[in-house]
What does this fold into?
Amino acid sequence: NAGVTQTPKFQVLKTGQSMTLQCAQDMNHNSMYWYRQDPGMGLRLIYYSASEGTTDKGEVPNGYNVSRLNKREFSLRLESAAPSQTSVYFCAGQLAGGIDNEQFFGPGTRLTVL
Amino acid sequence: DAKTTQPTSMDCAEGRAANLPCNHSTISGNEYVYWYRQIHSQGPQYIIHGLKNNETNEMASLIITEDRKSSTLILPHATLRDTAVYYCIVTSTGTASKLTFGTGTRLQVTL
It folds into this structure.
């Protein structure tokens, strides 16, 4: 199993450009999450999907949109990138009702907006 | 979800036990205490969780006080590979658990 995978690993954008961060999991997770982590800070929740077909806002949703394409995939879109969105983005999955109910995180996407 | 308070940083000698404290005085009855760690800039990794009883697994032990207002994560024999940022998170379990990460405790394990 690959676990939780994210593409791309690195990305540099110019202000105003758009892009989509991809996340996929092969662990049969019901719930999926997108977080961002700024330097020296903890992770902050952007959006989450409790189950296929549903999405909800987290703590910092402004400037982002998400799509739960199917059970495996959860994408994060920046329509018009801004320097304030320079961050490391982590996707996570969770098997609701699992033994430990823990979240499994991907390796992250490092995004720089110039 | 309840807010947690952790020391900013701690040091531990390799081979010794690392005891990482966490205060969560506003925890609710249905909320669990979860611990994750983040090595370098990797994605966080689950360590252990508990409700009110002490818990142990292959990675660590979790001691929760009787009033549940604080807890301690114990790494019994710390190694250099345990150097990481450790996050204490209080959350209710359910269909989707929204985790609130603070700034955590930066544990430095030294020779």
